[in-house]
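Exam revision sheet. Question 4 asks you to relate a sequence to its structure. Input first:
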Amino acid sequence: MYRVYLNPKEERVLVTRTKVVGEGWVLVTKHSNWDEAYRKALYLANRLDYVLEWFLEDQIEQTLQIFKN
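Answer key, structure tokens:
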């Protein structure tokens, strides 16, 4: 499960598999795959003019799953 978080105070959007409990982060949506979560986060970041962040490990893991199948 990939999660998209928003931090309005710091103007950041984060895509991650990890549950974030830090101050200021709000869960916006959950997606079953990386691509959907990333597209939603990219849309939000562009729309709000926020910084988009993600963990490279999450993206690589999803990419490797494609090649395994």
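Marking note for examiners. The radius of gyration is 12 Å.
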